[in-house]
Design goal:
Length: 97
Amino acid sequence: MRIKKHPILGSLEKKKEVNIVVDGKMLKAIEGEPIASALMANKIITFRKTRITKEPRGYFCGIGLCTDCMMIVNGVPNVRTCITPVTKGMKIETQTV
Ligand code: FES
């Protein structure tokens, strides 16, 4: 879900849509938006699982401090998705750590 019209910020401006692949599934995202925003817009809220208990983690601080949103992006682990912008064709995977 995306907020398309906000009472203070106004309407969401049109931006370029791109495809990303998340755990093998192709999804639409807006180029330049944080990966975490794209995932939540596609109803994905689990970004990683803890190593020992496999508990789900997702968006928490939103400013790159807590590491709860870390995922594997284009083969690189520990990418904080709340501060990493979407680019065309990105491959994103749930991380277990
Ligand atoms: S949500 Fe805390 S670092 Fe991304």
